[in-house]
């Protein structure tokens, strides 16, 4: 550390959540980077991997010049420690265990720092952070040449604590000054690092205990096997169907090759019947029993004492019988008592069997009790961990699961261990893939992971990330697999939502009318925009009404961008473009098998828009049954997927648009009145283009620039006659029709002047604009005659109630435009 372990001031750092504004500040970026490092280290269970992720993440992702971690340990290098003279006890100090950046060495002068010595030791002793942005001015920094040489500006040191335990210090240097908020963010990160280190330590402890238990278990089983093999004792266990699970005593007339067989397959009928009857009594009563039985053996009659005990599962239910059979024809009474002692031990720990005669039997029984105690301690530790932990045999069969797994699945240990249990626990759609990945990972013998959905006791599935780690013997043989399962449901939901939002964004771009902004300055458009500005920040439902091509979708996007939901997706649905049989599935999603072709579950548009906005274009075309479901969403904010009866809650703002007269549709019975009232909270009526002719020059210029750039052309001017013709046309297709005309003209243009062929606009009258059609339908014949007659009748007046524009039924701007285009002298009709 070159003596730089201090700061110019002490601060008690309190975690502060950074504010989220519309723009991304350096502090926001800093926080996101910290979050990324936190996620990386959270995935590591090995302590060295955790420490490496922390220091490497701080230096690589946060561009710290130097990051180091010390953990408190025994004073094991006092004779070599450069700071030993300052350490009075020499029994406990900070050990440098991870370093990245300027130096990755773990030895040197600051490889060991006594608790309470220097600033790093003071941080551990006082449990207080040290933060400084003035290293060169701090008198306590001894190596200022190093600070200048490396260009260091800031220092941050934090105690690593978990609960009441202090187990180290995290310190870092930066080449720029850090803000107070960044210091506080690093403090939060240090707390998360402490939890990760604690978790890794706990996992290592569990792994060591499991390995020790496995070693002792294997030793004890072999010891028991050898002891029983030279005794007159037979130890066995049978399931509820009285089929043998195992039996020990190879030198007896019975062998270990009896798994799955019954008494009737091993003994004479009269012996088998008596033994089976005794065992059924144990199964039914749950009480131990003792019996003596003579069995024919090698032409002689051998007397056996049989002690039977109920075998119970974790829930206490009797699921089998454990027994000890002792040959009492040739043994002393002492041997019988020892056998009974062993039977008592077996009844309390039925998965472990027997022992030698005499003192050896008692010694084995005591070892069994010790192992049971160690096993119980291990179970208490693993059961306290709020994460799924599984212990597997080398072939992948389940040996043990902790309490979290049992509580989550609602199953007992035997049910989890039973063959075929994975079909009850895991989602059927994930079984084949996950099982293949699992078998491949087990065969490789290296750590691996997989993701799949596990069924909760209430029937719901959640996604889990399962990580597998092998435990090997000294010879390298795999003794056990340890697996941890982490709930990643929220992460998967976020990934799915982002995926759908990306699809929706691409769909929005594909269906965009090519405008980035709402173009125009007419009075009608200004009124719409003023109302838009007021409703956008709210969560109110908006009904956008207007003719086809007026830009209803553009208005919807403007509302969304100005709302508090702008950071989330705007999901667009064209209700008229979806077959009526698929509308419900498209809007609300469906379950696998809900209908023919539903090969997997699909998330609907409403679920994809959760937290954002959904735009229902042409909502007037929704079928009647879907109108009912939409009404429920608007009223209760929930719906059901097709093929499911489970409600799904959503937080969605609804924007709807239509070119239809919904009031007339309600009167005609084709649209629900209650749905109309729910949609019509804030109506916005978009004026047609013929009512805003003053916007046409602006729109044309905007479109020319866009399409000329796209076509690689340069258009400098617009022909005046063309502009007047465009202003005079009624535009039944509104802005969309104008867009098509401009794009076509740009493509066909060979000069730098924009010209539109007037034949493109000579078409029949539009039903939506009868007044203007009286002129547009006779442009080539009597347009001049009509205008001059109107001017003569109105004495040259164009505007006003007695003006020619009113007489002709067209806007004043349109009439002025046509007068200029036709070079009519309106002043000659004026009278004094």
TrEMBL record:
Domain PAC stretches: 287-340, 448-500
Keyword Metal-binding: no
One Pfam assignment: PAS_3
Sigma-54 factor interaction domain span: 518-747
Alphabetized SMART domains for the sequence: AAA, GAF, PAC, PAS
Keyword Transmembrane assigned: no
Positions of the PAS domain: 374-445
Chain coiled-coil ranges: none
Keywords carried by this UniProt record: ATP-binding, DNA-binding, Nucleotide-binding, Transcription, Transcription regulation
Signal peptide: none
PANTHER family in the record: DNA-BINDING TRANSCRIPTIONAL ACTIVATOR HYFR-RELATED, TRANSCRIPTIONAL REGULATORY PROTEIN
Protein name: Fis family transcriptional regulator
Species of origin: Anaeromyxobacter oryzae
């Amino acid at each position: 550390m070159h003596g730089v372990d201090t700061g110019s001031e002490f601060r008690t750092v309190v975690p502060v959540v950074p504010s989220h504004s519309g723009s991304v500040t350096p502090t926001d970026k800093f926080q996101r980077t910290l979050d990324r490092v936190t996620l990386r280290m959270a995935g590591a269970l090995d302590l060295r991997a955790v420490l490496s992720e922390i220091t490497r993440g701080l230096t690589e992702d946060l561009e710290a010049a130097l990051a180091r971690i010390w953990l408190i340990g025994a004073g094991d290098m006092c004779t070599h420690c450069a700071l030993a003279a300052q350490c009075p006890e020499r029994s406990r100090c900070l050990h440098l265990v991870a370093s990245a950046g300027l130096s990755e060495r773990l030895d040197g002068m600051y490889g060991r720092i006594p608790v309470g010595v220097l600033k790093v030791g003071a941080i551990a002793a006082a449990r207080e952070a040290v933060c400084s942005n003035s290293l060169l001015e701090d008198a306590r920094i001894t190596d200022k040449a190093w600070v200048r040489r490396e260009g260091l500006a800031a220092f941050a040191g934090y105690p690593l604590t978990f609960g009441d335990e202090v187990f180290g210090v995290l310190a870092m240097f930066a080449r720029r000054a850090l803000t107070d908020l960044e210091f506080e963010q690093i403090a939060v990160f240090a707390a998360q690092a402490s939890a990760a280190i604690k978790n890794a330590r706990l996992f290592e402890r569990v792994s060591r205990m499991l390995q020790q238990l496995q070693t002792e278990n294997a030793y004890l089983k072999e010891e028991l096997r050898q002891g029983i093999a030279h005794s007159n004792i037979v130890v066995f266990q049978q399931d509820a169907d009285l089929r043998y699970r195992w039996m020990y005593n190879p030198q007896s007339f019975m062998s270990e090759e009896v798994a799955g067989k019954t008494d009737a397959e091993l003994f004479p009928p009269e012996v088998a019947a008596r033994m089976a009857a005794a065992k059924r009594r144990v199964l039914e009563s749950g009480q131990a029993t003792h019996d003596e039985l003579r069995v024919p053996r090698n032409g002689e009659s051998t007397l056996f004492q049989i002690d039977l005990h109920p075998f119970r599962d974790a829930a206490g239910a009797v699921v089998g019988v454990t027994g000890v059979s002792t040959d009492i024809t040739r043994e002393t009474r002492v041997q019988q008592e020892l056998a009974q002692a062993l039977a008592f031990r077996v009844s309390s720990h039925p998965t472990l069997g027997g022992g030698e005669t005499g003192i050896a039997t008692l010694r084995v029984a005591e070892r069994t009790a010790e192992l049971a105690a160690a096993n119980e301690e291990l179970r208490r530790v693993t059961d306290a961990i709020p994460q799924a932990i599984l212990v597997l045999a080398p072939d992948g069969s389940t040996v043990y699961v902790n309490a979290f797994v049992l509580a989550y699945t609602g199953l007992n240990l035997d049910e989890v261990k039973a063959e075929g249990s994975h079909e009850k626990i895991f989602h059927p759609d994930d079984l084949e893939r996950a099982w293949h990945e699992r078998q491949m990972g087990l065969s490789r013998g290296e750590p691996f992971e997989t993701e799949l959905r596990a069924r909760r006791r209430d029937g719901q599935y959640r996604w889990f990330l399962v990580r597998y780690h092998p435990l090997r013997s000294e010879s390298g043989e795999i003794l056990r697999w340890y697996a941890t399962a982490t709930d990643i449901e929220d992460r998967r939901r976020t990934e799915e939502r982002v995926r759908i939002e990306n699809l929706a964004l691409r769909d929005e771009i594909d269906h965009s009318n090519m405008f980035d902004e709402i173009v125009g300055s007419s009075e009608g458009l200004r009124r719409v925009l003023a109302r838009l500005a007021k409703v956008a920040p709210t969560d109110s439902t908006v009904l956008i009404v207007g003719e086809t091509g007026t830009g209803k979708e553009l208005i919807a996007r403007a509302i969304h961008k100005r709302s508090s939901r702008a950071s989330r997706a705007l999901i667009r649905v064209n209700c008229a473009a979806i077959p009526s049989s698929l509308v419900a599935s498209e809007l609300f999603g469906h379950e696998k098998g809900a209908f023919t072709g539903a090969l997997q579950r699909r998330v609907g548009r409403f679920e994809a828009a959760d937290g954002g906005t959904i735009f229902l274009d042409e909502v007037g075309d929704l079928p009647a049954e879907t109108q009912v479901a939409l009404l429920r969403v608007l009223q209760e904010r929930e719906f059901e997927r097709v093929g499911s009866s489970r409600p799904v809650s959503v937080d969605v703002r609804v924007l709807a648009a239509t070119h239809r007269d919904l009031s007339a549709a309600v009167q005609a019975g084709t649209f629900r009145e209650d749905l109309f009232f729910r949609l019509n909270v804030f109506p916005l009526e978009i004026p047609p283009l013929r009512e805003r002719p003053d916007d046409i020059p602006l729109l044309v210029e905007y479109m020319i620039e866009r399409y000329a750039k796209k076509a690689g052309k340069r258009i400098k001017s617009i022909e005046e006659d063309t502009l007047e013709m465009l202003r005079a046309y009624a535009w039944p297709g509104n802005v969309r029709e104008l867009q098509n005309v401009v794009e076509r003209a740009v493509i066909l243009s060979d000069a730098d002047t924009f010209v539109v062929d007037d034949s493109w606009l000579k078409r029949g009258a539009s039903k939506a604009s009868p007044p203007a059609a009286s002129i547009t339908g006779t442009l080539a014949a009597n347009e001049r005659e009509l205008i001059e007659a109107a001017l003569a009748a109105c004495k040259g007046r164009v505007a006003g109630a007695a003006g020619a524009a009113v007489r002709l039924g067209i806007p004043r701007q349109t009439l002025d435009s046509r007068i200029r285009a036709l070079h009519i002298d309106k002043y000659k009709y004026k009278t004094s």
